[in-house]
Each structure stands twice: as structure tokens, then as C-alpha cells.
Amino acid sequence: MSVREEFDAWAADGRDKGMEDRHWHTAKHALARMPVEPGDVVLDLGCGSGYAGRALKEADDAGRVYGLDGSPEMARNAREYTEDEDVGFVVGDFGSLPFATDSVDHVWSMEAFYYASDPHETLREVRRVLKPGGSFYCAVNYYEENVHSHGWQDSISVEMTRWSHDEYREAFRDAGLYVAEQDSIPDRDIEIPDADAFPTENWETREEMVERYREYGTLLTVGVAP
Amino acid sequence: MSVREEFDAWAADGRDKGMEDRHWHTAKHALARMPVEPGDVVLDLGCGSGYAGRALKEADDAGRVYGLDGSPEMARNAREYTEDEDVGFVVGDFGSLPFATDSVDHVWSMEAFYYASDPHETLREVRRVLKPGGSFYCAVNYYEENVHSHGWQDSISVEMTRWSHDEYREAFRDAGLYVAEQDSIPDRDIEIPDADAFPTENWETREEMVERYREYGTLLTVGVAP
Amino acid sequence: MKESLMDVLCCPMDKSELELEVDDRADDEEVLAGTLVCTECGERYPIEDGIPNLLPPDMRDDVPA
Amino acid sequence: MKESLMDVLCCPMDKSELELEVDDRADDEEVLAGTLVCTECGERYPIEDGIPNLLPPDMRDDVPA
Ligand SMILES: Nc1ncnc2c1ncn2[C@@H]1O[C@H](CSCC[C@H](N)C(=O)O)[C@@H](O)[C@H]1O
Ligand SMILES: Nc1ncnc2c1ncn2[C@@H]1O[C@H](CSCC[C@H](N)C(=O)O)[C@@H](O)[C@H]1O
To answer: Which NCBIfam families does the annotation name (chains C, D) (predicted)?
Structure first.
């Protein structure tokens, strides 16, 4: 199945909103670190419901925020969730970004980058569109050290890339981005039931659930364009 | 009084160790974000007891870590706290760094940068010594938005610079550094007594103490050299 | 889409400039329907419900609309 | 100080290379006492107890040792 088919179905299901709720737990901390200045142009790759762009616009006076998504239904929903005319949406693919060279101040992506059919190509595209000194905030929950994420591929038809911390840093550098930061951001907001509630539908033991959320959380890698 | 007189006295008092204990609460989170690779050369500006260099050496296989301090007694103590020959110390001043141009992979500084007699000059020096793509992790508890820090100057003879978030970003850019990140790192480790313990020796109300530590914490600004 | 988006958009294939053909507007600024035409390769990208579809042509057409 | 520190050190004043004069060593690598001499301006910086003092000369001497 294509990105479009898979994620159009998610959007029709309302899973865009479900992801927004869950991803916000860690995304808000990463977004708060972005050095966005008034007037900056920010691009959100795989925007889903578009919450990141809305948040950046409100918090930092970002000038314009564009959400790109390969699923027309995701983009359509996202457009309906905001009245702000300086938050726009574009249907496009991570493999060939429809943005001009040196046109964007910062790129954001949450739980989306690893769906790129060629992640190295996508990093080169990100580097191309970023202005010198612009940053790429790449946040993922699906990564090698997070063993609890390894099974996710089984329920998604689109092929996913599972890199480690080291592989992210190396791939950023290979694409010509400087690596400025790498961090695991714990999810402190998700409610974890008492021990006697386990096993739950999703978790064998409380320890595993604690490790997944409070320890591994979201892997953030920040690159800067030269 | 000079930096040397002021801080030689602190070192003789054992205040180097006291700062290490308190600053570690937030410094450890910032240190964990640094993208240090095996073999990298890291410089710690105003190293005090030298704990940051020791930690980086242990966690990341940093090749060599050098602590610079304007107080010979601080440097002497720091040297005694480690056996690692690849952790070295140098007495020097923030205004004219004795490090070669393009020689250092990353620069770290905790609760020290604002003592520079000319902080803009120090940023230019940092940029000079950093290799292209190298980062400057600058962490401070004394800054404009942290109103609880405003009184600190009264008890220190060395003149302190109190910048806001915006002023840090602007000064980094003026010195030719890209700004990759800015964040407030909360101190979640310091023990805050129950409400009925207030006022304490240092705090009128519990709310103020919570704001100082859990909310304002440490301001981290990350710059990257082009 | 707001017309100011044109400042940063380009053709996904050859990264050349696009030209905007407007069929329908919500107001002075907001384009609801139209086409983006690549000034270099001539490829035409539709704008529907205010959202330009700039998928590479082979991906755009992979599922019947 | 370990001799490998020489790779990255320079004169704080004119940023020129330094030359190492060793008076006392702990072992092959570790220099305990000696002097760093600027190859350009000739300024001499002392190494004491394994720590080079590279303060600018006017700051080095501001307090009697
Ligand atoms: N190759 C590709 N090109 C463009 N978008 C893609 C893509 N692969 C996946 N996506 C989009 O990436 C999104 C991943 S889901 C994450 C959505 C949002 N960032 C959030 O945090 O909730 C989906 O909306 C999907 O349509
Ligand atoms: N102009 C200057 N040049 C070099 N070192 C300086 C300086 N001004 C202050 N310092 C040093 O900066 C340190 C500040 S105290 C902080 C120490 C340590 N980084 C920690 O986190 O605990 C002191 O050791 C002081 O001697």
C-alpha cells in the first residue's frame, strides 16, 4: 500500500487527532527548544493533524508555517483545524520536496521521517531547502534502542526505517548537516496504571511500560545547515 | 576583586564541590544532549571542580577534555579530582582563550559564561576555537527571566552579565554562531520542603522556590560554528 | 493556499519556479482552486480545496481519486 | 599536563604556537613543571604542578603568588 492509501485511511478514522494527543506529550518539549524568531518560515514534514505548526505559530510568532503530508486526507483535515491563514498545507512527498533551495528557516518532523522511502535522500532534501544556519528537528518514537517499538512495522504497510542514535547522527552528517543535539525526551504525561493492572492489553509488565515512556520516550536529533 | 581572588577563595572553601552537587541537577541533562563522538576534543569554560569534563569522558568516550578556569586554585582542585590523563586543566581567561583556531569539537560552560568581562568577545573567541560544525553549550542559572537570580550580584565582587533568552540568541548570532536550540531545563532533583516549612532561610514562599527550580531552572543556549 | 506560499514553493521534480493559475478564490489572498505550472518542465499540479498537490506526478496518480 | 595538549594550545595574546620547555616530568607523557614560550612574541607562561598558566601576563601577576 502507498503512503497515500495507508494514511488517508488513518485520517478518515480520526487517528490524526489520536496521534496529536499522544505525540504532544513529548513534541511540546522539543518544539519549545526550537530557536524560532518572529517572521521565520517553518516546514512540518508529515504534519498529520498539523498541531506542531499551530503551536509554533502561537508560541513563537513564526511568520508562516507549512505542513507537508503525503496523504491528501491528512492535509485536508489539518486545514480544517485552523483558521490561521499563515498556516498552510501542501500535499507532497518526502523524496522530492516542493520547496525552493534556501527558503525555509526551520524544519520540524514528528513520528514521520522514517516513512521516507529513502531517508538519506530526504535528509539531502531537507538540507537543500534550509537556509544556512537553519535547523532540522527530527523526532521519532520508532528507533533501534526503543525495543518496544520494534513490532510496529507489522501493523503498517509502509516500509519503516529503524535507525539507532548513532545512525541518525551519521546520516545527518552524511547529508551535510551539522549535528547540534541528540536527546531522549521522556513522556511524563502518559498515565501508567498501578502494578496490579498489568498485564494490560498492550503491556505485559509495568516495568516495560515505564521503560517505553519514561525512559526511551522520543528520540530527538537536531541538525543545522551550514 | 579579580576573578582569581574571588574564586580562589571559593575553591579554598570547598565551594567547588558544593556547586558541582547543585549544578549537576540540570547540567547532566544538558550534557546528555551534546553530540560528542569518540575522540572529540571538548573544552569546559570555567570548569570549577571539573565534573562536566569527567562526565563527558566517561559517558561519550570524548577523546580529550580540557577545563579552563581563571582561578588557579579551582584548576588545582579539579586536577586532584581525576586520575584520567586525558582530562587536563589550564589556567586562562575567557577574554583571550589559549586555544588554537579550529581546534576544539565542542565547548561547554555551566554557570560561568556571564563572568566574562566582555561576553561578546568571549563568544567570538569560542567561535574562533570551534571547528566548523562544533557546538557551544552555554548553561546559566543567572539570567533576566529568572527573577530569583537578580540579587546574586550583591554577594559577588566580579561583575556579572544578565541577559535574557533573546539577548543570548542575538549575541550568539552577532558572534557568528548559528543558534540551534534554547531551552529552560527544570531542576527536578532539588528537594522542596512542604508548604509549612516556609518561609525558610532563603525562600519566602514555596511557590517562589518551585518557580525558581522546577520552572526556570537552567537556561541552555546552543550555538553551532559555521 | 495563500499566495505568499508561492515565494517558497517550487516544482518537486526539477525545483524550478511555478506559475499560478487561479480558478477560484475565497478572498484576495486565499486561492481555493487552480493549477501550479512548472515554468521549466510544464508539469501541471492541481490546487483543490485550497491545498496544492505537489506529489511527483507518478505518485499523484497512483490511486483513483 | 600531557604533551598532547600542545596540539591545541596557543599563546593567548597573539594565538601563535608555543614551545614547551620541560623542567620536571611525572612520566613519559605528563609534564609537571616547565615553561611555555610563545614562538612569536617570546612571552613565557609557567607550568606549575602540571597546570599551565596561560592567563594574559597582566592578569597572571595581579595577585602576589
Ligand atoms: N513519504 C511521505 N511523504 C509525505 N508524508 C508522509 C510520507 N510518509 C508518511 N507521511 C505522513 O507522515 C505522517 C506520519 S503520522 C505523524 C503525524 C504528526 N506529525 C504527529 O506527530 O501526529 C502521516 O500523516 C503520513 O501521511
Ligand atoms: N573571566 C574568567 N575566566 C576564566 N574563568 C572564569 C572567569 N570568570 C569566572 N571564571 C570561573 O568560572 C567558574 C564559575 S563557578 C561554576 C563552576 C562549574 N562550571 C560548575 O558548574 O560548578 C569559577 O571556577 C571561576 O573561577
So the answer is: Trm112_arch
ipTM of the complex: 0.96
At D62 the pLDDT is 54
Length, in residues, of chain D: 65
The count of domains in chain A is 1
Q: Which atom of ligand 2 is nearest to the CA of B74?
A: 24
The Cα B201–Cα B23 span in angstroms is 20
User: pLDDT digit string (tens) for A17-37?
Assistant: 999 999 999 999 999 999 999
Mean pLDDT of A71-82: 97
* D57/B96 Cα distance (integer angstroms): 11
User: In whole angstroms, what is the distance from residue B180 CA to residue A34 CA?
Assistant: 7
- The answer to whether A176 and A213 are in contact (CB under 8 A) is no
| Domain ranges, residue B41 | 3-190+219-224
Question: pLDDT confidence of D64, banded at 50, 70, 90?
Answer: very low
Contact indicator for D21, D34 with CB cutoff of 8 Å:
yes
| D contacts of B91 (beta carbons < 8 Å) | 51-55
Cβ contacts of A169 on chain B, cutoff 8 Å: 35, 37
Report the alpha-carbon distance of residue C18 to residue A147 in Å, rounded.
44
CB A40 within 8 A of CB A134: no
Is residue B26 domain-resident? yes
Q: Averaged over A188-207, what is the pLDDT?
A: 96
Inter-chain CB proximity B76 and D8 less than 8 Å: no
Ranges of beta strands (E only) in chain A are: 41-45, 64-69, 87-91, 104-110, 130-140, 178-185, 218-224
C-alpha A56 – ligand 2 centre gap (Å)? 36
Whether A165 contacts A143, CB under 8 Å: yes
Q: Residues in chain A, how many?
A: 226
Residue C65 is assigned to a structural domain of this protein: no
CA distance A134 to A223: 8
The answer on pLDDT for C62 being more than 90 is: no
Average pLDDT, chain B: 97
What is the biggest distance separating any 2 CA atoms in chain A, rounded to whole angstroms? Answer: 55
Q: How many residues does chain B have?
A: 226
Are the C-beta atoms of C17 and C5 separated by less than 8 Å?
no
Is D65 a member of any domain? Answer: no
Radius of gyration of chain D (CA): 12
Domain of residue C46: give its range.
3-60
User: Which residue, chain included where needed, has cell 518526502?
Assistant: A94
The Cα–Cα gap between A124 and B101 comes to 29
How would residue B52 be classed by pLDDT, with cut points 50, 70 and 90? Answer: very high
B118's CB contacts (< 8 A; 6+ apart) are B95
